[in-house]
């Protein structure tokens, strides 16, 4: 459990990081656009009321809210342009301690020619593989994923994490059949090397990376308001009249309570407000793939553009531009 000491103590929160990409650059999307999209979806009146409540609480309890008072931002969500020095400083100061407790799920660490660590968008399979390997080690040796992860980030020279070894003899201290022993350093060092070799990054690493553009953090269940919980086309919902579950008929293509939904909501707002024209000829020309790189299948199906579906920019492409997301921090 990740614990904050202020007004959202012990509360779940959510974050995501969008990398700079062609869509953002071509249409000059700003952090204000992202913030406005979230506020409009949340409801302007609800947002103003909640933000005012947060501010009042912070002023009534300055001992818990020193950083919020320092920067004058109170939520329920925050949007930062990580290429802006002031935004970058505030984001790291306010949320760095929380973000370093979680790993980025869609990017990996690489090193450029200046020996500076930068993020690179990956498929997410690297992190899944990393988790799977450490989970298997846990199955064999009884070492928790979090112990191995924490050691990999901050190697402990003394007081190594312990694991439980089963035995047919009862431990007089614990009354259990078995006892605790320090985890073998060789296993911990393997976990640390694995993390390094696979380029696993923390979410703090992700917001610090060169390619990070927008970082969004939200209080417990506040991101996108009720829109994130509405049924998607493929979901079932309870019909009180029929007293049964029926197929979803909502307007959303994505599932509720997912990062997919957030991407769909944000992209829909950008299009609706005219900030993005997905049929813009210059944008489409820029995203056109050289035919020499296309397969016969691509040509037969008209997939000539560098998009997820090969034809047009969708919420899936916005998701692909994300370095990491976590809808339940804590």
Structure characterization notes:
By secondary structure, the protein is α+β, with helices and mostly antiparallel strands. The chain has 3 domains: 14-123 and 206-220, no CATH class; 125-198, no CATH class; 228-320, no CATH class. Helices cover 40% and strands 17% of the residues. The protein is built from 13 helices and 10 strands. It has helices spanning 22-26, 31-42, 44-60, 66-71, 85-99, 125-141, 145-153, 185-198, 203-208, 259-272, 281-287, 296-300, 315-320, and strands at residues 14-19, 77-81, 107-111, 117-121, 162-170, 177-182, 212-218, 236-239, 244-247, 322-326. A hairpin with a 5-residue loop joins strand 3 and strand 4. The model is unreliable at 1-10 (pLDDT under 50).
Low-confidence stretches: 1-10
Largest sheet data: 4 strands, antiparallel
| Helix/strand structural class | alpha+beta
- Based on CA atoms alone, the radius of gyration comes out at 23 Å
Query: What is the global morphology?
Result: globular
Task: Name the beta content range.
Answer: 15-25%
